[in-house]
Each structure stands twice: as structure tokens, then as C-alpha cells.
Recover the amino acids of this structure.
């Protein structure tokens, strides 16, 4: 294909299409008119969804990427637009999610001049580089194909993470000769045979191995299960790894169930996980514990103090470990009966986290097996980490370690945009929901049929509980005055209901999912009646 005369914006959009991008979440603004107009010209190839806030644009791209595994792309103006989106960029970084930020810059002649041009930051590129894996400025239209290709390669090669591109205001509208769009090569990492041998021998010596999985294992579910069944090792997930092994399988453990086996564990196998439970949440680390860490990031095993590191793709590494263990004639006897009894006991025990366990279990009964559940930083969200069964990878969507309050509803809209044929439920608290409540307009305008279940305790519930318990009952900023959420949703043209019991929630949710339109279901909760889920998330030492 010969070079073409294109604007900078057209060069970027053509390169995005070459990378397989079919959807962009964007907020128009004067500095990126050249990009927005190019997207309008490419409407047959790229769908554009325009939310009401830059934070939502980025969270929607995050939800799209988190649920599909494909890069999520958003476009915002420079300066305040970029800064408004950074909470979502941080979430993408924390969860190793490929999000691509495309933004503008002040005109070329003013970059670095410090004259206070509209939306100028002291050094926007430096700011973006602190929040992303890779970032670059595109100075001329001709530079766009190579830099867009490099951005996508960086976002998807090795440990996936967000990246950013910026083009000056004038360059986005300036025409120039642009070479053909291109794709950068995706690098692969060959497995170290010596590391595999050492890992397999450590694992073979374990009497009670445990596997912990994170989002890095999403693409390795069959291989993880094969390894787990060979070892009869529980596969424990906290947030991101939920569904890599189905909760229905006797080896698919929640964090609460996994802690029951922690004291006996002698070898911990991490697969695409930060091992947060091991180094942060679980006390009583077993004496002489040995750690085998499988990760695409060569720096990760050192962070968790691994005894043996296997660097590479999780699917390839797990398959190789299973093969090596079979060569060593290692296959453990079934522990199905033992583990099913453990899980049944824990299921009964967590019912005391009232009322939220009953509510999230009601949602599970109604949501299809392949439906998406988007959590939030609220009491019901915390309970869902151990009380919401998950059957498939990527269907439990979380902000992970970043813990960004208010991410959930906005993210769920991106999940729905990327998965139009599947059901999406967003749970939220009254505090977090209002971080992005304006996006009810986006849901209505674009027909994004997310069903939002809003638990309203008129408080930042976790803060209220902590202040009450830990600071002599002195409460500051935790109690909230709220609108009538049902009437508020209806004012946006969204059907809404208020329910009181898990049974009523299940009925209302079933009706909402069947209608196939945006909906809100409010669940009033008395904060005084809430039982804290933290005994199962940060269990006390048993010694």
C-alpha cells in the first residue's frame, strides 16, 4: 500500500483500525477535534461512545479490556482531561490490563514553553509515564503508524499494561504523507528448561501444595486445571483470578476457603498472581514454605521471594510443568471428598456476613453462568470476594489492588459495550455510585443494558465501621445525604425499583435482565445491621 496524504488524526485512526480496534470511548474537545473528526469519518469501522466525564471514558475502556482481553481505547483532551482519567489508568496498571490512552497536546510551538497554553501541563508526557508501561508523543502524521503499532505491542506483549499516545493540537489537523499502517512484532519468552526442572522437583516434594492464580492466568485456565488435578492442589483466587478454575470444581477455592488450607501448605505455586493473600492478608505463614512463581514479568518472582521462578506465558509454563511431573511419575490421589466437605463448611460459615452474602448469592442465582459481575468498593463488593461463585475467567471484574472507589458502574458500561450479547450486573454502594452517577445518561443514550444493584446504607460503610470501632465512635465524613435513587434513575429514562429482601432482589433482577435495557435496583440497608466481611478477608492469626 502506498503512502497517503492524511491528517494526523486520520493517521492515528487508520492505525487503530489496523490493530483491530472496533470501539473507542471518547470525549470531544478542541485540542482533539482532528482525532474526533477522523473517528467520525471511520464510523463504519469504529463505534464511538461518548460518556459524560473523562474518568468514565477511561473506566469504560478498562471494562472493555478487562472483560474481552483486547485493548480498550479511550480519547480525551490533554491536561485536565488526561488527569481526570488517571484513576482508571492506575486501575489498569494495577490489574495488568491493556488500555490505550490517546490524547492531544498543546500546539507544537508551545510544548515545553511554559506559557500557560490552554490545558498545558508542566510535562504531560512525564506525567503519563508515571502511570503507564510506555508513553510517547507523535510529532507528525507520518510518525503515527510506527508509534501506534509500538503502543499496542507494549500494551499486549509481556505483562499487559496501559500505554499512552499524545499528538499536538496542530499535528492532529495537519496533512502529510503517511506511510502504510503497520504492526509491531509481538515478542515471546522461551521457557527456561532448567527452571522448569527445578520447579517440578520442588512441587513433586510437596505433601500439601497450593496454587494461587491472578489475572495473569486468564488465558491458561485449561492448563491450570490440568496441573491442579495432577497435584490435587486447591486453586485459590482473591479477586482477579476468580473463575480461572470454576467455583463448582472441588479444587476451585475462594480466599476464605483457601485460608483453611494455609497452615498445612508446604509449596505455594503462584501463577500470574501478586500473591497478595500470602504476603499481605494471611497471617501464620507456614514454616519452611517454598514458593514457585510462574509469571510473564521477570521482576515479579523477586517481589514475592520465590524460591524458583518460571518466566513465561502461564499456559505454556503450566503445560510444561504438568508434562515434567508426569515424567517424574507424580500424580496425587483425589482429595475431592475432603475438599468438598471443607467448602461446604465454609459456605455455611460465611452466611453470618449479613445481609450481603444472601444478596450476592441471590444475584448469582439469577445471573447467567457467562454473565459479568462487576464489583465495587462497598460491603457487598467485599463480601463477593468469597461469597460469589464464578465459573469462567474474566466474568468477575475488579479494580484489583488499586481499590478505586467509584470504578464499578462506569467500568460495567464498558464491559457491556464489549460484550453486547451477554448480561452485565454492576453492584455498588451509594457512595461509590455517585462518583459516576452522570453516566446513567450514557447508559440510556447508548442502550447499554447494565443492571445496577445499589446497596444504600447512607454512608461510606467501611469508613463508618472503622471510625466507629477504632476511634471511639467519632465519625467524620462517613455519613451521607442521598437523593431518591429510584426517581433519579427514572429522570434519566431508566427503569428503577426498590427491594428489601434477597428474594425480592432475585425477582426484580430477573425481570430487569429479561427486559434487556438499563435498569437500577436499590437495596436499602441499615448500616447498624451490617456484619463486617473482614474476618474472611483479613483473618486473625490463629496462634
Amino acid at each position: 500500500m502506498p503512502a497517503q496524504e492524511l491528517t494526523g488524526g486520520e493517521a492515528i485512526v487508520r492505525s487503530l483500525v489496523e490493530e483491530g480496534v472496533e470501539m473507542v470511548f471518547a470525549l470531544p474537545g478542541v485540542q482533539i477535534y482532528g482525532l474526533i473528526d477522523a473517528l467520525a469519518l471511520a464510523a463504519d469501522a469504529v463505534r464511538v461512545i461518548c460518556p459524560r466525564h473523562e474518568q468514565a471514558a477511561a473506566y469504560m475502556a478498562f471494562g472493555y479490556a478487562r472483560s474481552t482481553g483486547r485493548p480498550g481505547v479511550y480519547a480525551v483532551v490533554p491536561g485536565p482531561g488526561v488527569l481526570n482519567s488517571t484513576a482508571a489508568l492506575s486501575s489498569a496498571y494495577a490489574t495488568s490490563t491493556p488500555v490505550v490512552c490517546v490524547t492531544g497536546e498543546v500546539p507544537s510551538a508551545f510544548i515545553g514553553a511554559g506559557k500557560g497554553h490552554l490545558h498545558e501541563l508542566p510535562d504531560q508526557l512525564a506525567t503519563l509515564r508515571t502511570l503507564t508501561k510506555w508513553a510517547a508523543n507523535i510529532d507528525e502524521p507520518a510518525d503515527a503508524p510506527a508509534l501506534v503499532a509500538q503502543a499496542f505491542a507494549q500494551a499486549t506483549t509481556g505483562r499487559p499494561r496501559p500505554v499512552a499516545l499524545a499528538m499536538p493540537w496542530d499535528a492532529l489537523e495537519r496533512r502529510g504523507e503517511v506511510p502504510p499502517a503497520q504492526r509491531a512484532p509481538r515478542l515471546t519468552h522461551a521457557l527456561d528448561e532448567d527452571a522448569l526442572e527445578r520447579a517440578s522437583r520442588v512441587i513433586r516434594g510437596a505433601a500439601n501444595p497450593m496454587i494461587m492464580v491472578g489475572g495473569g492466568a486468564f488465558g491458561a485456565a485449561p492448563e491450570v486445571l490440568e496441573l491442579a488435578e495432577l497435584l490435587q492442589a486447591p486453586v485459590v483466587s482473591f479477586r482477579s483470578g476468580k473463575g480461572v478454575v470454576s467455583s463448582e470444581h472441588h479444587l476451585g477455592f475462594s480466599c476464605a476457603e483457601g485460608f483453611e488450607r494455609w497452615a498445612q501448605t508446604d509449596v505455594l505455586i503462584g501463577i500470574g498472581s501478586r500473591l497478595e493473600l500470602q504476603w499481605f492478608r494471611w497471617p501464620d505463614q507456614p514454616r519452611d514454605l517454598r514458593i514457585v512463581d510462574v509469571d510473564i514479568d521477570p521482576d515479579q518472582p523477586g517481589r514475592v521471594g520465590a524460591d524458583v521462578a518460571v518466566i513465561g506465558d502461564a499456559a505454556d509454563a503450566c503445560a510444561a510443568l504438568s508434562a515434567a511431573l508426569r515424567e517424574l511419575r507424580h500424580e496425587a490421589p483425589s482429595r475431592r471428598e475432603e475438599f468438598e466437605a471443607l467448602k461446604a463448611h465454609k459456605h455455611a460459615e460465611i452466611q453470618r456476613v449479613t445481609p450481603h452474602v444472601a444478596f450476592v448469592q441471590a444475584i448469582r442465582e439469577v445471573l447467567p453462568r457467562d454473565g459479568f459481575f462487576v464489583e465495587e468498593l462497598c460491603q457487598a463488593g467485599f463480601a463477593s470476594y468469597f461469597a460469589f461463585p464464578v465459573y469462567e475467567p474474566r466474568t468477575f471484574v475488579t479494580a484489583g489492588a488499586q481499590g478505586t472507589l467509584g470504578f464499578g458502574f462506569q467500568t460495567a458500561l464498558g464491559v457491556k459495550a464489549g460484550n453486547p450479547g451477554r448480561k452485565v450486573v454492576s453492584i455498588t454502594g451509594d457512595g461509590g455510585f455517585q462518583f459516576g452517577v452522570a453516566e446513567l445518561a450514557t447508559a440510556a443514550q447508548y442502550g447499554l443494558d447494565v443492571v445496577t444493584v445499589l446497596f444504600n446504607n447512607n454512608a461510606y460503610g467501611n469508613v463508618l465501621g472503622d471510625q466507629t470501632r477504632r476511634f471511639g465512635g467519632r465519625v467524620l465524613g462517613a455519613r451521607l445525604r442521598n437523593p431518591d435513587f429510584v426517581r433519579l434513575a427514572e429522570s434519566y429514562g431508566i427503569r428503577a425499583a426498590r427491594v428489601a429482601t434477597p428474594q425480592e432482589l432475585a425477582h426484580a433482577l430477573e425481570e430487569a435482565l429479561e427486559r434487556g435495557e438499563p435498569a437500577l435496583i436499590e437495596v436499602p440497608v441499615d448500616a447498624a445491621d451490617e456484619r463486617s466481611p473482614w474476618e474472611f478477608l483479613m483473618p486473625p492469626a490463629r496462634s
Observations:
- The mean pLDDT is 96.
- Residues 354 and 529 are 8 Å apart (CA to CA).
- The two ends are 70 Å apart (CA to CA).
- The first strand starts at residue 4 and ends at 7.
